[in-house]
Amino acid sequence: MHPFNHGHEYLREELLSFIGSKQMMSGVLWGEKEKGCLIVTSGGRHGKKAGYADEELEDGGWWYFGQGSTGNHLLTNPANRRLLEGTRSLLLFTTKEPNAAEIRARGNHRKMFSFRGEYNICGYDVVSPKDGTRKGDSLLRFHLIPTQGEVTRISSSGQNSLDDLFSLRNVFASKTLPGPAPSRISIKQYRVRSEAVRTYGLLRANGICEGCNTPAPFLDEQGIGFLEVHHIHRLADDGIDEPKNIAALCPNCHRRAHYSADKSIFRQLLVEATASIEESLINSRRTEATLPDMKPSNLPFIT
Question: Which residue among 4, 34, 54, 269 is the one 20 to 30 A from 285 at the CA level?
Answer without folding.
Answer: 269
